[in-house]
């Protein structure tokens, strides 16, 4: 996966596949009506070690270019906002339970869920809904490729399976 938008889209899709309505935060999609909690997915943080891709991961032959590529990577930690919105406090709790169950699985694109945290649900009178701030941290790898001629190719985020 490349870019923040693709990361948000992947997590929102994963949550929908696991029974929780989800949209990417700040999009133009219409949110579902009452009856279910909705998670608004945003990328709040990305942490990685030192600069550069310091871990050598091996070589791979790219059939499209006809060249060998060396693969380098570094572990990254992604923090996603998963704020829940619902018409009732009960729907918020059901949404949190569904979110926890979904994150007990492997996660989108193999990302490993490290932790989930949620705050107190607050009723927003102007919006006539409850909002519960939540976020989850995931571990993944940022992987880059370098061709034989030294050309540095774009990088992408790759997941890792739970053991």
Question: What key attributes describe this structure?
Answer:
alpha+beta, STM4215-like
Task: State the helix count.
Answer: 2
The fold-level CATH name is STM4215-like
State the domain count.
1
By CATH reckoning, the class would read Alpha Beta
Mean pLDDT score: 79
Rounded Rg: 19 Å
Shape: elongated
Beta percentage is over 45%
Number of separate strands:
9
Structural class: alpha+beta
| Helix content class | 10-25%
Distance between the termini: 22 Å
Report the sheet with the most strands, covering strand number, pairing sense and barrel closure. 9 strands, mixed
- CATH architecture level-2 label: 2-Layer Sandwich
**What is the N-to-C order of secondary-structure elements (H for helix, E for strand)?**
HEEEEHEEEEE
Could you characterize the architecture of this molecule?
It is a single chain. By secondary structure, the chain is an alpha+beta fold. The protein has a single domain (3-158), classed as STM4215-like (2-Layer Sandwich). 18% of the residues lie in helices and 48% in strands. The chain is built from 2 helices and 9 strands. It has helices spanning 3-17, 89-103, and strands spanning 21-24, 38-48, 55-62, 67-86, 112-118, 122-124, 129-132, 134-147, 152-158. The longest helix is centred in the first third of the chain and has 15 residues, at 3-17. The chain is elongated.
């Amino acid at each position: 996966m490349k870019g923040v938008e693709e990361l948000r889209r992947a997590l929102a899709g994963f949550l929908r596949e696991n029974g929780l309505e989800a949209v990417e935060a700040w999009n133009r999609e219409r949110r579902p009506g009452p009856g279910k909690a909705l998670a608004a997915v945003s990328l709040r943080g990305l942490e990685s070690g030192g600069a550069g891709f310091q871990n050598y991961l091996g070589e791979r032959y790219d059939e499209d270019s006809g060249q060998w590529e060396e693969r380098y990577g570094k572990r990254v930690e992604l923090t996603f906002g998963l704020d829940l919105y619902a018409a009732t406090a009960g729907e918020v709790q059901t949404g949190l339970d569904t979110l926890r169950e979904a994150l007990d699985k492997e996660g989108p694109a193999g990302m490993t869920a490290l932790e989930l945290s949620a705050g107190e649900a607050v009723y927003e009178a102007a919006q006539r809904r409850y909002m519960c701030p939540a976020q989850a941290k995931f571990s993944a790898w940022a992987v880059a490729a370098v061709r034989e001629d030294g050309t540095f190719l774009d990088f992408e985020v790759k997941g890792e399976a739970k053991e």
